[in-house]
Amino acid sequence: MQAFVARPEHGIAWISGASSGIGRALALKLAGDGYKVAVTARDHEKLAELQAEASDFSGSIIVLDGDVTNAEDMEHVLASIEYEHGTLALAVFNAGVNLPVHAEELKLVDFEKSFAVNLQGVVNCLIPAVRHMKAKGQGQIAIVSSVSGYGGLPTNAAYGATNAALINMAESLKFDLDKMGIRIQLINPGFVDTLATKGSEYPLPSMISVDEAAEHISAGLKSQSFEVTFPKRFSYMMKLINLLPYALYFRLINRFTGWRERPLKKRGRPAVAHPAE
């Protein structure tokens, strides 16, 4: 039996983190394919610009402002979809931040914000979405993580940790969601040319544009695959590297990133004073 694949006639598509990057490109792609797409982010002006850009498309953009770190906001977004716009057929939880972390200057705020947006933000969207889809008996959910969740990379202590958690979350939820008629997918992009990858401290191979990423995701949403990962050659290389013994893994990552030769940053005073100070 094939899993449910959402189509425009089934209802609304909801994308979080749609004001820029992959979320924005995917919203335009789905609207061009005929979907009514509810878009969520904190920046109303950018969402309004997105809505205007899709004004001549076969589908449309519905602006629903909200902060994914606020569970009440996400309940309101889902309520608006359900009572004002129709059935939620497809949800793509994409909102995320990438804050570089250096062990020589650890900052609590980098971890707190990363966990709040990337991980708790997905949970805040997931709970009302699953409740709605459970009542309807069908639905499709895609969680956007990253190949950085496969294993540790320099500066990725916070970002990579949240992506590893999202991968495990999607895998774990699949067992029950399958029985509920709700299809869950995991989106693991490689390096995409967004604000999150600007200013990287080491080379990022196989970089693709947000439009290419949106094409890959759109195709993956129509497939029967649990994981949608791209570019294939790079993502499978990352999977393979993470099967290696740790001694070899760290040696290869240091070699590819040049991280062993990078000097430590000079540590300044912490952003937040220690309670003992």
Task: Characterise the protein shown here.
By secondary structure, the protein is of the alpha/beta class. Helix content is 44%, strand content 14%. The protein has one domain (8-261): NAD(P)-binding Rossmann-like Domain (Rossmann fold, 3-Layer(aba) Sandwich). Helix 2 links the parallel strand 2 and strand 3 (60-63). Helix 3 (71-85) packs parallel to helix 4. InterPro entries: NAD(P)-bd_dom_sf, SDR_fam. Belongs to the short-chain dehydrogenases/reductases (SDR) family. One of its GO terms (molecular function) is oxidoreductase activity. This is Short-chain dehydrogenase.
Percent of residues in beta strands?
Answer: 5-15%
Coarse morphology: globular
Distance between the termini: 62 Å
The protein's oligomeric status is: single chain
- Structural domain tally: 1
Reported by name, the CATH topology is: Rossmann fold
- Binned, the helix content reads 40-55%
Indicate the structural class.
alpha/beta
> What does the average pLDDT come to?
94
Weakly predicted, low-confidence segments: 269-277
Q: Write down the CATH class.
A: Alpha Beta
Give the ordered list of helices and strands. EHEHEHEHEHEHEHH
